[in-house]
Design goal:
This protein has 9 helices and no strands. The protein is mainly α.
C-alpha cells in the first residue's frame, strides 16, 4: 500500500470537505432568498461541515477512492463526492421552475467562484515564492472546478438533473420516481472514461481561463 498516496488522498479529502460545505451552504442560502426556509430551519445555511455530510457521497465514496488509489487500482485517483442534498420545498418559492434552476446552479457557481479565489492565492504564492502555497492553492482550484462540473452531470441527486428536469418539463413526481436508481447510475457513470474525459476537459479549460485572468503562464 502506498502511504504517500494515502497522505495525498487525505489532504485532497479535507479540501473536498471544505468545498462541499461551501457548495451546499450556497444551495441553502439561495433557497432561503427565493422564499423557502426549509433548509434554514434545518440549520443548513451554515459553513459547519457536519450538517452537510452525506455518508455515501461525503464519506464512503471519497475514502474508497483514496484506498483504491493507495493499492494501485485504476479506479483510484478520481476523488469526487457530494454533500447531503439540501431540502427544498418548491411550493414555498416565488417562481417554481426559475427558482429551482437558481437554487441548483448556486452550488456549482460557488465552486467556480472559489476556484477564482484560490487561484488568486496561487498567484500570491508565486509572488511570495512559496511553493507549498502554490501547490495547495492549485490543488484546491482544480478540485473546486471538478466539483463544479461533476455536479452539473444530469444524474440525480446532482444539480444538473434539476436543470434537465426543468429543461424538458419533467414533473416532480416522475423525477422522484427516478431517484432511487440514481446512485447506481452515478457510480457507473463516473467510471466511464468518456465521462471522466469530459469532466477533466471542462476542468482544464476553465483552469486555463482563470490562469489567463491572473496572467499565470
Amino acid at each position: 500500500m502506498n502511504n504517500v498516496a494515502i497522505i495525498d488522498g487525505l489532504i485532497q479529502y479535507c479540501c473536498l470537505l471544505v468545498l462541499i460545505t461551501f457548495h451546499e451552504c450556497a444551495h441553502a442560502w439561495t433557497a432561503m432568498k427565493c422564499g423557502d426556509n426549509t433548509a434554514r430551519d434545518q440549520g443548513r445555511v451554515s459553513l459547519n461541515p457536519i450538517v452537510h455530510i452525506d455518508m455515501i457521497g461525503t464519506v464512503a465514496l471519497p475514502l474508497l477512492v483514496i484506498f483504491l488509489g493507495a493499492v494501485g487500482s485504476s479506479l483510484g485517483g478520481f476523488i469526487i463526492g457530494w454533500g447531503k442534498p439540501v431540502p427544498v420545498d418548491l411550493d414555498n418559492v416565488r417562481h417554481r421552475r426559475r427558482d429551482d434552476v437558481l437554487i441548483s446552479l448556486a452550488g456549482p457557481a460557488m465552486n467556480l467562484a472559489l476556484a477564482v479565489v484560490t487561484m488568486g492565492l496561487a498567484k500570491a504564492g508565486l509572488l511570495a515564492d512559496s511553493t507549498v502555497m502554490v501547490r495547495m492553492a492549485v490543488q484546491l482550484t482544480e478540485l473546486s472546478l471538478l466539483l463544479c462540473f461533476f455536479n452539473l452531470l444530469p444524474i440525480p441527486p446532482l444539480d444538473g438533473s434539476h436543470l434537465l428536469k426543468n429543461l424538458i418539463g419533467m414533473s416532480d413526481e416522475t423525477y422522484y420516481r427516478l431517484c432511487p436508481f440514481s446512485f447506481i447510475i452515478l457510480i457507473v457513470a463516473i467510471q466511464i472514461p468518456l465521462v471522466q474525459g469530459i469532466l477533466n476537459g471542462a476542468m482544464r479549460w476553465s483552469f486555463g481561463l482563470i490562469c489567463l485572468l491572473y496572467q499565470i503562464r
